[in-house]
Structures are given as structure tokens and as C-alpha cells.
């Protein structure tokens, strides 16, 4: 716990006995600049050369808007699905001991390691109307492959480990006494989970959500196989960027990229602020 | 609320934590479960709370068999050593939690708030409703935990090493304060501690436990002055012991009678227990225990000496006045003023 007096005010460098502040800050900034800032500002700079009118035309092109909507919409839904099921998976892994627990635990990381194209092809084979699962769903009138639903499934697959791996360590640290106290106070199991445990996990869940969402927005490899890539229906923004590039329309590609960048940054910033707020409250 | 523990046995896998424990707790009593770690005191407390189920036996609240009820239905207040406060709730929300989760006769929010601030007054934390647990000191957190337990009007209040995580000064302060709260509210209270000073000072009666059994139940005077087993004698307060022999109603060390009569003790090997400070120093050599000083330390107002007694150089500790000119190799003769004989183990 830090206990900085409120009256201390803002200072450039908090006095600290740990040396190396200047060195490490300098290194971090230089590194971030090289790896992230320069490429991204190149992107913005390239877009800026386009001029406002052209930019607006590209940005508000119906196909662009639709692609962005699909990208962000499916990523949001997939992240939301992952929050629910990822938290349940983490809970099972942390709370119960069963044969094969370690194997399941290791399996969670597979989406990290698997080439995304492999995942995309595997999912497409399964969910295509003549695939194992697709064949079962087809009679019910549910089409998965080549629809936004397919995109969501691919993104759920890709995003799962982000939620599990952020929530799991926090879950392991839950003090058993807190649950027991809630029980002695008369709380049912559901009330304990919902009112006591869940709020404690919410910052971690939010982080997991943000990571899964960010990954989903940027995902390309697995989606293009299962999505079918019909313009206005199941075409994602990253694919549209690639299409524009193949048409040598670099200006349009960078413009869409800049919009994605801005939207992603705004959403991640918002999530970060929510987190900072909740951390400040709960310590 | 009277609590009766009847022939309770508790096993964890192959480990037996409690063996046939019976205990009657009177209504409104403040009782301490005292024992070393692994003695089963916390297990007994958790069984009363309903956080564990007995392998055998039953626990009664009044005439009602509480072992048939779940934790939620028992209506007990439980306080943990590490507070177990809800981090994301304010102090007031923590205290009001037990009322808020009620299904039946849940009081209105305004009433819950009023009750929380009333309890904060009781635990002397007036005005801290809006704080979060992270913003409180250890002692304050434990007060909040107690207020939270009291909020549900528990039938029994159970405290598991409530002051264990606090430093010595806060501990003493909270001890006195807990006694006051108890006298004010009159809840039947059971607390677990391994600190005998805490148990003796705070509790109406002390339950001394060892290895899953209750060794003795009694007031501070009872367990200190008339311990009923070698364990209780050596666990409570300072004690010294010497292996002796009983013959013809007299106590012998090697071939010397030490001037202690033991008419009711059967002949044979025995162990003599006494308090190191409860002795008289003697001159001469007859009818006393004699030995040479092996080590001596000054401790506060007295001097502790280690004496080697008899041919097999059994060491015993004594407290003597600082004015006594004892140094190493000095011969000291003494006789305990009060003592207790227990048959030799095995």
C-alpha cells in the first residue's frame, strides 16, 4: 500500500529509493516509440495526406461502415461470450480437482499457439453445412459458416485464453474466509457468488474482456476462412483493408486503418479508465 | 443462547481433529478455546458455526439440534483472524450485508443504514461509513468485522483468533474493548486463541484443548491453580517438573526424601510439577530439593536460575529474588510451596 499524502500534488518524479527511474523511463519511451508510435503515426500521416473530403468519402462509404460495424460488433459479442464462459472455465479450473484438470488447463492456451488460419479452416470444416456440427444445425435453420455468427465463433475461440488467464490468478487468491463469512451472515450460495465474489473479480474480468475484444477486432487469419467474406454481410474491416491494398488503393486502406485505430484506442482507454476507477475504490 | 456440544467427533480424511468432545456453554457466557496449534480448537469453533459437519455427535443451540441446519440457517456471527471483509463494499455496506441478503423480513434500506451507523458507534468507528476496508488499519478492520457479525443479531458470536493478526498494543486495547462489548450486548461468545494471557484475562471460562480433546474447562483460577493434567499444568503459566518416586506416602528424588508428603498417591514413578516462583528457599540439606546452579538470567524483577538436581542432573527452573547471591556452581536447596504429582507417563 502506498500512502502518499493528498497534499503532495503532482510531481514529475516521485521520490524513490529505487534507482534507475530516468534510465528505465527513457528506455520504455524509446522502445514504445520505435515499436508502436512510429508505425502508427506513419499510418496517421499517410491518411492525413488524403485530405478531409476524400477521407470522409471513404470513411462513410457504406461498405466501410458495414465492415467496421461487423468487426466491432462481432468482437464485442465474442468478448462478452468469452467473459461468461471464460470465467466459468477459470472457476472450474481453480475450484475443482478432477482427473485431467491439468490437461484442460493446458488446452486453454491452445488458441494462443495455433496458427489462426488453422483454427479458421478447422472451424469452417466443422460448421460448414456439410460439416459435423453444421450438419446438425442446418435442419434447425441455423447457418454458422459464411455468416457473422461464424465470425463470432472464430473470435470466441481466439479470445478464450485471454479471459481465462487474466481471471484465473485473481480467482486463486480469493480468501476462503470471505465466502464463509457471507454464508454465516445468511447469504445463499448464489448471493455469495453474485454479491461478494463477482465484484472482486470484475476488474480482472474487465481486463480479460478488453484483451479478448482487442484481439477480436484485429483478428484476420481465422475469420476470413469461416466468414465467407460477403460485402455488407460478413466482411470484416481488416479484410477490407487487405482488399484495398490489393487494389493498390493505399489511401483508402490507411484511412480505414486509422478509423479502426481511433475506435480501438477510444474503447480501450474507456475500459482502462473504468478499471482505474474501480481499483481506486477497492484498493 | 445455550450451546451444547455433545460427543462430537470430527475426522478429515484420515486425520482425526476432534475425538469425542462434549462442552456446555451457558447463555451469555464469554468462553475461550485455548490450546496449541493442532489441538482442534478452530475445528470445534467451525463445527459450532456450521462451517464443518461433525463426523459423529451433535451440537445443540438451546433445545434445538443445530447440526441439522445449514450455516445460513444457524444465525451465528463469525469473525476471522484476517477480517475477511468484503473489499469492494464500504464499511456501512459490509455491516449491512447480513440484513441485505435476507429473504424474509429484510429491513428497508434506510433501516439497514441506521443499524449500520448504530453498530459503528458501538465499535467506536463513528463516521467511517463511507470508507473502504483498504483505507482502515488492522484494528479498525477487525472492529468492522465484529460489527458486521453483530448486525444479524446472532444467537452465538464466534471469533477465530480475532486479535492474532494485530500488534501487541492494539491487541490489549481490543481485548478490553471486546469485554466491554460483550458485557453491553450479552451475546454468548466463543473465541479461539493460542494466547493464554488473552484467554485468562478475557474469558469467563477457559476450555483447554490438546490433541483433539478437552483437557480441562474452568475459570482462570481453576486452570491455573488446580490443573487436572500435566498438559494443563505445563501449558498454562510457567512450570517446572521433576521426575520423582513415591514410596510410603513420601516423595523421593533418588534416595532422598524431599519433605513432601503424598499420602493419596500410589507408590511408583511420578512427576512433580510446581510453579518456578512458588517455592521457598531453604538452608540445610534434609527434606528439600537441592542442586547446583547451571545457568542464571536476570528477567525483569526476578532472577531465573537453572538448577541441576540429583545424580542424573535433571534440570529445573526456579525464580529467586535478585538479592540472592546465587552464581554458577552455587548450591541451592528449595521446596515448592504448592505442587502437583502426576503418575509418570507410560
UniProtKB/TrEMBL annotation, chain A:
It is found in: Cell membrane. It comes from the Bacteria. The keyword Isomerase does not apply. Signal peptide: none annotated. Keywords: Membrane, Sulfate transport, Transmembrane, Transmembrane helix, Transport. It is a multi-pass membrane protein. GO terms for molecular function: ABC-type sulfate transporter activity. Residues 68-269 form the ABC transmembrane type-1 domain. PROSITE patterns: ABC_TM1 (PS50928). InterPro entries: CysT_permease, MetI-like, MetI-like_sf, Sulph_transpt2. GO terms for cellular component: plasma membrane. The chain crosses the membrane at residues 21-45, 70-94, 106-128, 140-164, 196-214, 220-243, 250-274. Its main location: membrane. The complex is composed of two ATP-binding proteins (CysA), two transmembrane proteins (CysT and CysW) and a solute-binding protein (CysP). Part of the ABC transporter complex CysAWTP (TC 3.A.1.6.1) involved in sulfate/thiosulfate import. Probably responsible for the translocation of the substrate across the membrane. Belongs to the binding-protein-dependent transport system permease family. CysTW subfamily. This is Sulfate transport system permease protein CysT. It comes from Neomesorhizobium albiziae.
From TrEMBL, chain B:
The keyword Cell membrane applies. GO terms for biological process: quaternary ammonium group transport. GO terms for cellular component: ATP-binding cassette (ABC) transporter complex. Residues 3-236 form the ABC transporter domain. The keyword Transport applies. Pfam families: ABC_tran, TOBE_3. Keywords: ATP-binding, Cell membrane, Membrane, Nucleotide-binding, Sulfate transport, Translocase, Transport. It comes from the Bacteria. InterPro entries: AAA+_ATPase (IPR003593), ABC_SmlMolc_Importer (IPR050093), ABC_transporter-like_ATP-bd (IPR003439), ABC_transporter-like_CS (IPR017871), Mo/tungstate-bd_C_term_dom (IPR008995), NA-bd_OB-fold (IPR012340), P-loop_NTPase (IPR027417), Sulph_transpt1 (IPR005666). One of its GO terms (molecular function) is ATP hydrolysis activity. Belongs to the ABC transporter superfamily. NCBIfam families: 3a0106s01 (TIGR00968). This is Sulfate transport system ATP-binding protein. The lineage of its organism: Bacteria, Pseudomonadati, Pseudomonadota, Alphaproteobacteria, Hyphomicrobiales.
Amino acid at each position: 500500500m502506498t500512502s502518499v499524502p493528498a497534499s503532495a500534488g503532482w510531481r514529475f518524479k516521485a521520490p524513490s529509493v529505487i534507482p534507475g527511474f530516468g534510465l528505465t523511463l527513457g528506455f520504455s519511451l524509446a522502445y514504445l516509440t520505435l515499436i508502436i508510435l512510429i508505425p502508427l503515426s506513419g499510418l496517421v500521416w499517410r491518411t492525413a495526406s488524403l485530405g478531409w473530403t476524400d477521407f470522409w468519402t471513404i470513411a462513410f462509404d457504406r461498405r466501410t461502415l458495414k465492415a467496421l460495424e461487423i468487426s466491432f460488433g462481432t468482437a464485442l459479442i465474442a468478448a462478452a461470450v468469452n467473459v461468461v464462459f471464460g470465467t466459468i472455465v477459470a472457476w472450474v479450473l481453480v475450484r475443482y480437482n478432477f482427473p485431467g484438470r491439468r490437461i484442460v488447463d493446458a488446452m486453454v492456451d491452445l488458441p494462443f499457439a495455433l496458427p489462426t488460419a488453422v483454427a479458421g479452416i478447422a472451424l469452417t470444416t466443422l460448421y460448414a453445412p456439410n460439416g459435423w456440427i453444421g450438419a446438425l444445425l442446418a435442419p434447425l435453420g441455423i447457418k454458422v459458416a459464411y455468416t457473422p455468427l461464424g465470425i463470432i465463433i472464430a473470435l470466441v475461440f481466439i479470445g478464450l485464453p485471454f479471459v481465462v488467464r487474466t481471471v484465473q490468478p485473481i480467482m486463486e487468491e480469493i480468501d476462503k474466509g470471505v465466502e464463509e463469512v457471507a454464508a454465516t451472515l445468511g447469504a445463499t450460495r448464489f448471493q455469495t457468488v453474485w454479491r461478494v465474489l463477482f465484484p472482486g473479480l470484475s476488474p480482472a474480468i474487465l481486463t480479460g474482456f478488453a484483451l479478448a475484444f482487442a484481439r477480436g477486432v484485429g483478428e484476420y487469419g481465422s475469420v476470413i476462412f469461416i466468414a465467407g467474406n460477403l460485402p455488407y454481410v460478413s466482411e470484416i474491416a481488416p479484410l477490407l483493408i487487405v482488399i484495398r491494398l490489393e487494389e493498390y488503393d493505399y489511401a483508402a486502406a490507411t484511412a480505414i486503418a486509422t478509423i479502426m485505430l481511433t475506435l480501438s484506442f477510444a474503447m480501450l482507454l474507456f475500459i482502462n479508465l473504468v478499471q482505474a476507477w474501480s481499483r481506486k475504490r477497492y484498493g | 443462547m445455550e450451546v451444547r456440544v455433545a460427543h462430537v467427533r470430527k475426522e478429515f480424511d484420515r486425520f482425526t481433529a476432534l475425538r469425542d468432545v462434549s462442552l456446555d456453554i451457558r447463555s451469555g457466557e464469554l468462553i475461550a478455546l485455548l490450546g496449541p496449534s493442532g489441538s482442534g480448537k478452530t475445528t470445534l469453533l467451525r463445527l459450532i458455526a456450521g462451517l464443518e459437519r461433525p463426523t459423529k455427535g451433535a451440537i445443540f443451540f438451546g433445545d434445538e439440534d443445530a447440526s441439522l441446519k445449514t450455516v445460513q440457517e444457524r444465525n451465528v456471527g463469525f469473525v476471522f483472524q484476517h477480517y475477511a471483509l468484503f473489499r469492494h463494499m464500504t464499511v456501512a455496506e459490509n455491516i449491512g450485508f447480513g440484513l441485505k441478503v435476507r429473504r424474509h423480513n429484510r429491513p428497508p434500506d434506510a433501516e439497514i443504514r441506521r443499524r449500520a451507523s448504530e453498530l459503528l458507534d458501538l465499535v467506536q468507528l463513528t463516521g467511517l461509513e463511507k470508507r473502504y476496508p483498504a483505507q482502515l488499519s488492522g484494528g479498525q478492520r477487525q472492529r468492522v468485522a465484529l460489527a458486521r457479525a453483530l448486525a444479524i443479531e446472532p444467537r452465538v458470536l464466534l471469533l477465530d483468533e480475532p486479535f492474532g493478526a494485530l500488534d501487541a498494543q492494539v491487541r490489549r486495547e481490543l481485548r478490553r474493548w471486546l469485554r466491554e462489548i460483550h458485557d453491553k450486548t450479552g451475546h454468548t461468545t466463543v473465541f479461539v486463541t493460542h494466547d493464554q494471557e488473552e484467554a485468562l484475562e478475557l474469558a469467563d471460562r477457559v476450555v483447554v484443548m490438546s490433541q483433539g480433546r478437552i483437557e480441562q474447562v474452568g475459570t482462570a483460577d481453576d486452570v491455573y491453580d488446580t490443573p487436572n493434567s500435566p498438559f494443563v499444568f505445563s501449558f498454562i503459566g510457567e512450570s517446572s517438573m521433576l521426575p520423582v518416586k513415591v514410596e510410603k506416602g513420601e516423595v523421593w528424588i533418588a534416595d532422598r526424601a524431599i519433605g513432601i508428603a503424598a499420602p493419596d498417591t500410589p507408590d511408583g514413578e511420578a512427576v512433580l510439577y510446581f510453579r518456578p516462583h512458588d517455592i521457598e528457599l531453604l538452608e540445610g540439606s534434609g527434606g528439600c530439593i537441592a542442586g547446583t546452579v547451571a545457568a542464571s538470567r536476570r528477567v525483569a524483577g526476578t532472577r531465573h536460575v537453572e538448577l541441576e538436581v540429583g545424580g542424573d542432573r535433571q534440570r529445573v527452573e526456579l525464580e529467586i529474588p535478585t538479592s540472592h547471591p546465587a552464581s554458577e556452581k552455587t548450591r541451592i536447596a528449595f521446596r515448592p510451596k504448592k505442587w502437583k504429582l502426576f503418575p509418570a507417563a507410560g
